[in-house]
């Protein structure tokens, strides 16, 4: 199976993702808090200020509305394969109501977190694997039960994380300049930039013009090109790697824009650095 579209167990929020391609890269902005278990292969998660590399047997928590660049690759002769459990706002709210748990108001959203090994996590994900072999769809009641089991396990093994994901509020209006300076390398639609800064698309564009005195697209292109130049010139990185990690969709568009801005192509700059080195 070669797919980038998660294969659901049912209409619930448990998915299996598998790819046999040598390199698969995309922007990840999940709208739900997610617990991901790596079965095989490797996943590199690139954030503005840190990078995580997770492999087979690792479990990582990924918070909702967190922009990231994700690179998935096979490893040790096995394809990239992972299982993800989504914690929807509805599922969390119902859990809190059923168990009479009071929500706590957190100013900051929970961080990405590599979970410690725990027998309960091992048991949870091992119990899910046989379900993906079924020819028929898993009954929703069983799938929902597994999501509730995952929530209960989080509460038991990491109460701070559990409390943090009990914050159901949508993103509020935040400092636009700070957010954009931190997240400009992520190739998101303008509507998503607006949503994550607590603005409608119209308000986002208006506030952006006031803040930066230019359009979002022009500013984003300029910032991404400057970052790419630094990574090739100062860090000796390959243009093909820099292209994707700085927010450009393909190498040809990246090379064209780079040469128009700096007078040399990324490859020419990279070759010149190699010769001088």
SSE order and pairing:
Elements (H helix, E strand, L loop, with lengths): L6 E2 L5 E6 L4 E5 L4 E8 L1 E5 L4 E5 L3 E4 L5 E6 L6 E8 L1 H10 L14 E2 L4 H10 L11 H18 L1 H6 L11 H8 L6 H7 L4 H12 L3 H18 L5 H7 L5 H12 L3 H11 L1
Antiparallel strand pairs: 1-2, 2-9, 3-8, 4-7, 4-9, 5-6, 5-8, 7-10
Descriptors:
disordered N terminus; Jelly Rolls; 11 helices; 6-stranded antiparallel sheet; alpha+beta; 277 residues; 2 domains; Arc Repressor Mutant, subunit A; single chain; 43% helix; 4-stranded antiparallel sheet
Task: Write up this protein.
The structure is a single chain. Strand 1 and strand 2 form a beta hairpin. The chain has 2 domains: 7-164, Jelly Rolls; 176-276, Arc Repressor Mutant, subunit A (Orthogonal Bundle). It contains 11 helices and 10 strands. Helix content is 43%, strand content 18%. It is α+β, with helices and mostly antiparallel strands and 277 residues long. The strands form 2 sheets. It has a 6-stranded antiparallel sheet with strand order 1-2-9-4-7-10. A 4-stranded antiparallel sheet has the order 3-8-5-6, with no helix packed on it.
Order of helices and strands: EEEEEEEEEHEHHHHHHHHHH
Q: Report mean pLDDT, rounded to a whole number.
A: 86
Low-confidence stretches: 1-5
Looking across the biggest beta sheet, what order are the strands in? 1-2-9-4-7-10
Kindly report how far apart the N and C termini lie: 44 Å
CATH first level of the largest domain: Mainly Beta
Please work out how many helical segments DSSP would assign: 11
Second rung of CATH, namely the architecture of the largest domain: Sandwich
**Spatial extent as radius of gyration:** 21 Å
